[in-house]
Every structure is written in C-alpha cells, then in structure tokens.
Amino acid sequence: MATTTFKNDLGMLHKAFELWNASLPSIIPIKNVQYSWTHQAIPPAITSKTEELGGNSLGLDPEDGPLVLCLVTASWSDPADDDHINSVGKNLIEAVDAASKSAGVFHPFKYLNYAAKWQDPIRGYGAENVAKLKSTSRKYDPYRVFQKAVPGGFKLL
C-alpha cells in the first residue's frame, strides 16, 4: 500500500486515474496480482468536527475544503516480484503528487495506516503538529519506549 492526498478537483481525479491506468501494463503480467486504486473523500464535515474539539494533530483543516485520499493497493504471490510492484506503486504515488502540485491541489496528508515504508506520513501533519506530538511524547514517554522499543511503524523521533 501507498497513499497520497489532494484537494478535491475533477481534473485531478481524472489525472490520478489516468496515471493509475498507465501503470497497469507493467502490472498485468504479474502472476496472481490484485492491484487497485481507491479514492476516499475527506469532506469538511469531518475535518470541521475536530475543530470543535480543539483541532487535530493530522494537519487536516476544514479551510482546505474537501480532500481526496488516494490509496494504491497490491497483493501478489511471488516474492520475486516484490521490488517491481513496490517500484510501480512508488512511481504512481510520486506521479500523482507531482501532478497535484502542478495543478495547485496538493495536500501533504498521508494517512499513516495506508503509508508505505518509504513515505513519511508524520511530516505531512505540519511542523507545528509534529512539534506538539514530540513534546507530548517526551512528557508521557520519557524513556521513549514507543520510539525505540516498539518494533515497526512510523516514529516521531
């Protein structure tokens, strides 16, 4: 899996689909592959609720308007295909990010649960939120158990 987000824009939705569709020829020959592209709406009705409760640490602001979270998912049976399929997914996300930046609709949010190892979803929360999260971590986890002793996942420090 890998993910990205952009502001809701019909042209960008079409472009993202075109980019995903263009990635298909390199995936089709893979045996037992399942490859999907998903759009998930993040409407202001959701992000505005967090504002009422004091904001959120994800960098999602109702002023951004409706957002579209994109997810590329692949599964396959032969580990020999790992590098190829991971490369296709990475190239796709990078192409969508470049297109959304060019169109002026890029948003830095990367949903942590969908992020690939090579992505940095925490940075997308914004410098101020990351600083708050680090401060909270230092206060409530002074021995950095969750930063050092817990394997896997994305870390603040």
Explain what this protein looks like in three dimensions.
Helix 1 (10-27) runs antiparallel to helix 3 (82-103). The two termini are 23 Å apart. This protein is α+β, with helices and mostly antiparallel strands and 157 residues long. The chain folds into two domains: 2-125; 126-157, no CATH class. The protein has five helices and four strands. The chain has a four-stranded antiparallel sheet with strand order 2-3-1-4.
Question: Which key terms come to mind for this protein?
Answer:
single chain, four-stranded antiparallel β-sheet, alpha+beta, 157 residues, 2 domains, 43% helix, 5 helices
Give the secondary structure arrangement, pairings included.
Layout (H helix, E strand, L loop, with lengths): L1 E6 L2 H18 L6 E9 L1 H9 L14 E9 L6 H22 L2 E2 L19 H14 L4 H5 L8
Antiparallel strand pairs: 1-3, 1-4, 2-3
Helix pairs in contact: 1-3
Radius of gyration, taken over Cα atoms and rounded to an integer in Å: 17 Å
Number of strands: 4
Spatial strand sequence of the major β-sheet: 2-3-1-4
How large is the count of helical segments?
5
Shape: flat
Q: How many separate domains?
A: 2
Specify the helix fraction band.
40-55%
The major pleated sheet works out as:
4 strands, antiparallel
Q: Calculate the terminal CA-CA distance, rounded to whole Å.
A: 23 Å
Low-confidence stretches: none
Order of helices and strands: EHEHEHEHH
